[in-house]
Amino acid sequence: MSKNLINRDISEIQTDNMLAYSFSVICGRAIPDYRDGLKPVQKRILWGMLKDGSLSSKPHKKSAKVVGNIMGR
């Protein structure tokens, strides 16, 4: 047996890895950015609306169409 192996319980490894992953997801997706107060998905929707030309001076568009266009990209 190699001297570099460390015996650890699988549940301990899973707990450590899950905590790191959970923290990364919370920071990346759920917490609004301090600069503009928007979550990443909200920024993506607003940017997509701007690219599609959805302005207040244009005719109404259904939100399902806007979201579908964003998700399709």
Number of helices: 3
- SSE pattern: HHH
Structural class, please? mainly alpha
Shape: elongated
Can you tell me the number of structural domains?
1
Instruction: Name the poorly predicted regions.
Output: none
Radius of gyration: 21 Å
What is the number of strand segments? 0
Termini gap = 51 Å
For the largest beta-sheet, the strand count, sense and barrel status come to: none
Report the β-strand fraction as a percent range.
under 5%
- Provide the helix percentage: 55-70%
Mean pLDDT: 86
Describe the model:
The protein has one domain. It is mainly α and 73 residues long. The chain is built from three helices and no strands.
Index terms:
single chain; 73 residues; mainly alpha; 60% helix
In short:
The chain is mostly helical and about 70 residues long. It has helices at about 10-30, 40-50, 65-70.
Write the layout of secondary structure elements.
Layout: H1 10-30, H2 40-52, H3 63-72
Helix pairs in contact: 2-3
